[in-house]
Write a structure and sequence with these properties.
The chain is α+β, with helices and mostly antiparallel strands. 41% of the residues lie in helices and 16% in strands. Its main location: nucleus.
């Protein structure tokens, strides 16, 4: 999720694909729409998979995925992410998917809707997340993470 900010002067790296300055919030939620992990602060121009690779969650999953996910647990990510033993991604639809692959993608997409709903609820509860006017990036980071923590109550 992109959190729009007031851009620091003389820096284009904060501008996302919609040409608005933002910072990226990466979130992991459960089926109850509770945030289980958040990572915030990468610039808006960064790709989702790069944000994930820079996150502490990724480092932990590389070394000890069972500690976070259990023996048979997985994260469910969209096609921006790389398939890994801890990350389930959809099959690329090149027009030649088998019926089983199409069904898998359908189920996969329905599960991924949880994070979209979670982010929708988060922005609904904390309207300030739609656009933060502060240029103090430390304040912005603290504010967004606090909203994420309070979301779970």
């Amino acid at each position: 999720m992109h959190v729009n900010i007031k851009a620091p002067t003389n820096s284009t790296k904060y501008y996302n694909r919609k040409k608005t300055p933002s910072l990226i919030l990466q979130g992991v939620c459960d089926n109850k729409l509770l945030l289980r992990d958040v990572y915030f602060g990468e610039v808006g121009s960064m790709h989702d998979s790069r944000v994930f690779c820079r996150s502490p969650l990724h480092r932990e999953l590389q070394t000890n995925p069972e500690r976070l996910l259990g023996k048979d647990g997985h994260l469910v990510g969209d096609s921006a992410y790389t398939l890994a033993h801890y990350m389930m991604t959809p099959f690329r639809d090149n027009g030649h998917l088998l019926d089983e692959q199409t069904h898998y993608n359908y189920i996969h997409a329905s599960i991924r809707k949880s994070i979209e709903r979670t982010f929708g609820l988060l922005k609904g509860k904390w309207r300030s997340l739609k656009a933060l006017e502060s240029t103090n990036l430390l304040y912005v980071q603290d504010h967004v993470v606090a909203c994420c923590v309070l979301h779970n109550f």
